[in-house]
Structure formats: C-alpha cells, structure tokens
Amino acid sequence: VSLRRQILEAARRIPRGRAATYGDVAAAAGSPRSAREVGRALAGLPADTDVPWWRIVNSQGAISPRAGGGAVLQAALLAEEGLLGADGRVDLRRFRWDPATETSSAAPKAWD
DNA sequence: ATCGTGACCTGGA
DNA sequence: CTCCAGGCCACGA
C-alpha cells in the first residue's frame, strides 16, 4: 500500500488552479511507470477524501473516458477552477502542475 | 507462496 | 483520429 499512499500524498499537493497528468502524479510518487496505478488509487478514494482527484487528467489533458460516474463532476470542478478549455480539455501548456513548485501559487509562467 | 487477469495510462504507428 | 503493444502494480484463485 506504500505506493498507493505515495500517490495520494503527491496528488494532495496539487494546488487549486492547476492540473496534473496520471504520469505526473506517478512520477511525483516515485514510480514514473505506474500511471495506471494512479487511476486505480483514485478509483478507490472515499467520498470525503481531501485529495483533489479532479485535477488529475490523462496526458492529453482530457478527463479519462474510464473515469466512471465521476467524470461529469470532474468536468464541473475543473471548469469552476477555470482549467477547462472550450474543447472540454485542460490546457496543460498553461495549467500543468510542476511537482517541484510546492504550494506556491508560483507564478505559472507566462505562456506566450 | 505463485499465477493469471485487469486497470480512470502512454507513446508510437 | 484510431489501433497496437508495453509495463507496473494490486487482487483474487
């Protein structure tokens, strides 16, 4: 369960207004190749978890098609944080979370 | 303990 | 855009 805990701890660090990919979280958890395990860990989260699971999307910036019933809620939450683009996907170029920048609102570097 | 199967993925063709 | 194969981990038999 160690890896799973690592994953959840990493996911919990994602600040508001930012999103991360499954791969990012896996890497932050110390297992870069376990993106799928991230999805599995999220699937088992309790409803009252403090983990911002909705900020985790796939490498395309899209909500995982296998996200189950939570997909709709996820889209709503992402939209609320202004992360969702017009195409229904997160623009990772702008909002991708950098594990190195701890809490900070660390200036999301300007994009263009 | 081993073995087989499945999973909210990812990158390449 | 779709299809294909790889790789890591957890779980049940």
Shape field: globular
Give me the side-by-side strand order of the main sheet. 1-2
**Which structural class fits the helix and strand makeup?**
mainly alpha
Question: What percent strand?
Answer: under 5%
Separation, N- and C-terminal Cα atoms: 42 Å
Low-confidence stretches: none
Task: Characterize the structure shown.
This protein has 112 residues and is mainly α. The protein is 38% helix and 4% strand. It contains five helices and two strands; from the N terminus they run αβααβαα. A two-stranded parallel ribbon has the order 1-2. Helix 2 (22-28) crosses helix 3 (35-43). The termini are far apart. The model has no long low-confidence stretch (mean pLDDT 86). It binds a DNA duplex (13 and 13 nucleotides) through residues 1, 3-4, 21-23, 26, 31, 33-43, 53, 56-60, 63-68, 70-71, 74.
Which terms summarize this structure?
112 residues; 38% helix; DNA-binding
Provide a brief overview of the structure:
The chain is mainly alpha-helical and 112 residues long. The chain contains 5 helices and 2 strands.
Question: How are the SSEs placed, and which strands pair?
Answer:
Blueprint: H1 2-12, E1 20-21, H2 22-28, H3 35-43, E2 56-57, H4 70-80, H5 92-95
Helix pairs in contact: 2-3
The chain binds a DNA duplex (13 and 13 nucleotides) through residues 1, 3-4, 21-23, 26, 31, 33-43, 53, 56-60, 63-68, 70-71, 74.
